[in-house]
Give the backbone structure.
Amino acid sequence: MCLAVPGKIVRIEGDVGEIDFGGVIRKANVSMVEGKVGDWAIVHAGFAIEIIDEEEALETIKLWNEVLDSDAAFSQR
């Protein structure tokens, strides 16, 4: 299964951006998007693949958290 996760771009140097995933900062290649610091990006396999607006990013994060919470509850049964 492939996952793409939204994160906020906090720094860009060349083709490498530092992306904040809820307090965890990871580096990703940003050469495929025209993002800037403060933008939200969908990141897959170390590459920012799409810039999205904040509302969409936060809704996606909310849905991911619901899935993770339900999975944790399911695995405790």
The chain has one domain: 5-75. The mean pLDDT is 92.
